[in-house]
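Comment thread on ticket #2218

A.B. wrote:
> Attaching the input chain for the structure job we discussed in standup.
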Amino acid sequence: MAKIALIDSHPLMRECISNYLSGSDYAITLQVDDGKELIEQLTMENVPDVCLLEFNARSKTGYETIKMLRSAWPNMKIAIYSMQTGPVENKTPSGADVIIPDQTSIAAFKSTLDNLIQQ
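C.D. wrote:
> Ran it. Output below, let me know if you need it in another format.
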């Protein structure tokens, strides 16, 4: 079972994504509002396989969070998405392994995560 850290400043989105993924082969090991909170809570015991990051999560910007994660946990896979108007593809180069556009269906969202885990 793949471990996921979910970072999103919108509690509703966090809960919806968590509920959806928990019904699959995923364990949501951390749910936080922002990158700062994620960095504070990550330990060697709870490092996820994938960090699923809403790119505009408060406190630490997506770029700062990714940079810190890459430095401390270089093997962690990072997927970003954004609920912001406009394509998240414009956020490259972000350092993320996968960028999930905001127009992606929930089935395609899960498929993208499945493919990322298998890499």
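A.B. wrote:
> Thanks. Noting for the ticket: Helices lie at 11-22, 35-41, 62-72, 106-118.
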